[in-house]
Design brief:
This protein has four helices and seven strands. The protein is an alpha/beta fold. It has a single domain, classed as Peptidyl-tRNA hydrolase (Rossmann fold), CATH 3.40.50. β3 and β4 form a beta hairpin.
Length: 181
């Protein structure tokens, strides 16, 4: 199979119980970016949608086991780690912020660490989407909010972030351009 230019993965947990939680913003971002594209299941470990030069991957594993699904996707589509972009939640950034980084440690994110372990490299791009609450006093532990449902206010903020990320990843508007979901 022809090597594609890039593979974009949205991390999260499977199932409706987690669908609208802060921990699933990677998957939510990918769904906005792909704007209604149909995903096909692959051997139960991941689902994918593709354009001519990009494959979009949703692991069907739990977050902490994302590496196995990403490794299988890389094998199926012939990608190299340097062609991989991973969208995921970042509890050290406030809602409304995101950072792009490459070649850095997982910083405690178990889904990212799983990918690094499975690929035996950290040489891929990460888009770290902020989920830390901006209201309230004191700094909460990530475990206190990552599995909570996203508030309506934060959902609106996050959709704007997803659209900005879509414009950065897909500058020519393919697919969807980040307006959906």
């Amino acid at each position: 199979m022809k090597t594609l230019r890039r593979i974009i993965v949205g991390l999260g947990n499977p199932g409706t119980a987690f669908a609208h939680t802060y921990h699933n913003v990677g998957q939510s971002a990918l769904r906005v970016i792909t704007d209604g594209m149909e995903f096909k299941k692959q051997k139960g470990s991941f689902a994918f949608a593709a354009t001519a030069d990009t494959v979009f991957v949703l692991p069907l594993t739990f977050m902490n086991e994302s590496g196995a699904a990403v490794r299988e996707a890389m094998k199926k589509f012939g990608g190299r780690a340097t062609e991989l972009t991973v969208l995921h939640d970042e509890s050290d950034l406030p809602v409304g912020k995101y950072k792009v980084s490459a070649g850095r440690n997982a910083a405690g994110h178990k889904g990212v660490q799983s990918i690094m372990d499975a690929l035996r490299t950290k040489d891929f791009t990460r888009i770290r989407i902020g989920i830390r609450p901006t209201e309230g006093t004191g700094r909460k532990k990530a475990s206190a909010f990552v599995l909570k449902n996203i508030t309506p206010k934060d959902r609106k903020i996050l959709h704007a972030v997803f659209a900005e990320i879509a414009n950065q990843l897909l500058p020519y508007g393919e697919p969807g351009g980040g307006d959906g979901a």
